[in-house]
């Protein structure tokens, strides 16, 4: 399988070559003008913010905090991990968030004797769903929110988040209950019967045999038998709690020892940097929401994020920027740049307009009062089904152009906002259909070390 960045570069080069053969060879300045600098700037700046924030050890600390809060109980632990992942993915790069939490999550699964694959997949799904709530949480949303037609329609950060947030909350509830139903048997979250449960069963069997061996003919034997039965009842309650994913008691010496070791290993490594990072990220998010004020719309999302990243670089007082810049996903930025060139070349070749005309002709088959509903359903399901089998980033890059054409007064003249929400829901949520094909989830959903092959069950 060819790397997606190489594939995008080859495809864009081929499209430009075909365009040159057709007599419309673009110049180098024209090719550069095809790049969506706003999208690239937003992605680069958010990557910088996450890269610096990751150096504080915050993500590892939150995972250990979840272990402490839940006492290692299975479903409460998974719930808190998914909650943390969804919240961070709302404003930060979702795949980076999952990748940063993966090592400590695998360690938590080893301690609680869980199979990390379903746990990580649950986190990936909630990361995907949470990232769909804002324009900066998922790359398809970045492409949609920064498109010129969307910006001209006054769909700002606040408007986007409010409209998408309501639907995402409903999706989160539905996803949670679906996961609970899929793993209603708690043993499906484990490799096999955990060792501590086997030891409890063996100990319980020993105490039961001891209690059964005593008769009730003498008072002394009756007292001993009752004491043994109380011990059996206590062990049985403990066994039931463990089998139900109840975890260990917070006063359990083994739990306390494990928690102390993990706190020592996964701790906040740089508290001053954490405070500075929190201030800068909060500043960026607040300014994002303030874009609802017309006077503040002159500063775009990309430039807002860049100012926040530059502020954090100044506050961090790092002499060497190479380790931070090494964390930036340059291949992803190059992938986006190649896609922008490819889509513009295809647009000049007439492919995008042909797809738009075919879509318009299909929508025109219904009455004027039903055209918006048909267009919304068409965009939602086409983008949702297609993004389950192909990369949702190029799909969004193409579909946002088709969506803008539907809203053109010279064409159908449909309202742009509902079409944008439909495209966002379809591209973002459809991408979680197959873990091996959704572009921003592929690396995070790979089999963890030591568990190869189990993720494809």
Automatic annotation (TrEMBL):
The chain crosses the membrane at residues 40-62, 74-92, 160-179, 273-293, 328-352, 372-390. The keyword Signal applies. GO terms for cellular component: membrane. The keyword rRNA-binding does not apply. InterPro entries: Cit_transptr-like_dom, Diverse_Ion_Transporter. It is a multi-pass membrane protein. It is found in: Membrane. Keywords: Membrane, Signal, Transmembrane, Transmembrane helix, Transport. This is SFRICE_027393. Residues 1-20 form the signal peptide. It comes from Spodoptera frugiperda (Fall armyworm). Residues 3-426 form the Citrate transporter-like domain. GO terms for biological process: transmembrane transport.
């Amino acid at each position: 399988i060819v790397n997606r960045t190489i594939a995008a570069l080859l495809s864009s080069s081929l499209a430009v070559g075909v365009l040159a053969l057709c007599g419309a060879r673009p110049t180098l300045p024209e090719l550069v003008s095809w790049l969506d600098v706003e999208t690239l700037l937003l992605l680069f700046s958010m990557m910088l913010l996450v890269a610096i924030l990751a150096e504080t050890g915050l993500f590892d600390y939150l995972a250990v905090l979840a272990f402490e809060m839940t006492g290692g109980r299975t479903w409460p632990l998974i719930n808190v991990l998914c909650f943390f992942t969804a919240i961070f993915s709302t404003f930060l790069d979702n795949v980076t968030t999952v990748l940063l939490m993966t090592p400590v999550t695998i360690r938590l699964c080893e301690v609680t004797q869980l199979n990390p694959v379903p746990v990580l997949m649950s986190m990936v799904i909630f990361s995907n769903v949470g990232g769909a709530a804002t324009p900066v949480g998922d790359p398809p949303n970045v492409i949609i929110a920064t498109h010129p037609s969307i910006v001209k329609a006054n769909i700002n950060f606040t408007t986007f988040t409010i409209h998408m947030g309501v639907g995402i909350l409903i999706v989160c509830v539905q996803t949670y209950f679906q996961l609970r139903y899929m793993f209603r048997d708690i043993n499906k979250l484990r490799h096999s019967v955990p060792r501590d449960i086997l030891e409890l069963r063996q100990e319980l069997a020993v105490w039961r045999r001891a209690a059964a061996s005593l008769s009730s003919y003498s008072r002394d034997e009756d007292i001993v038998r009752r004491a043994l039965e109380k011990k059996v009842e206590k062990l049985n309650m403990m066994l039931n709690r463990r089998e139900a994913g109840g975890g260990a008691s917070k006063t359990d010496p083994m739990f306390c020892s494990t928690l102390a070791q993990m706190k020592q290993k996964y701790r906040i490594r740089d508290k001053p940097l954490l405070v500075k990072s929190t201030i800068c990220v909060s500043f960026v998010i607040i300014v994002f929401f303030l874009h609802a004020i017309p006077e503040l719309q002159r500063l775009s999302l990309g430039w807002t994020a860049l100012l926040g990243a530059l502020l954090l670089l100044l506050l961090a007082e790092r002499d060497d920027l190479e380790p931070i810049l090494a964390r930036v996903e340059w291949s992803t930025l190059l992938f986006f740049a190649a896609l922008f060139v490819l889509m513009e070349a295809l647009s000049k070749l007439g492919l995008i307009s042909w797809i738009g005309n075919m879509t318009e002709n299909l929508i025109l088959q219904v009455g004027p009062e039903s055209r918006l509903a048909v267009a919304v359903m068409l965009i939602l399901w086409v983008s949702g089904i297609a993004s389950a089998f192909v990369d949702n980033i190029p799909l969004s890059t193409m579909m946002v152009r088709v969506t803008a054409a539907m809203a053109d007064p010279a064409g159908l003249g449909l309202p742009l906002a509902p079409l944008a929400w439909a495209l966002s829901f379809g591209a973002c949520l459809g991408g979680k259909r197959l873990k091996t094909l959704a572009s921003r989830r592929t690396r995070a959903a790979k089999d963890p070390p030591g568990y190869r092959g189990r993720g494809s069950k």
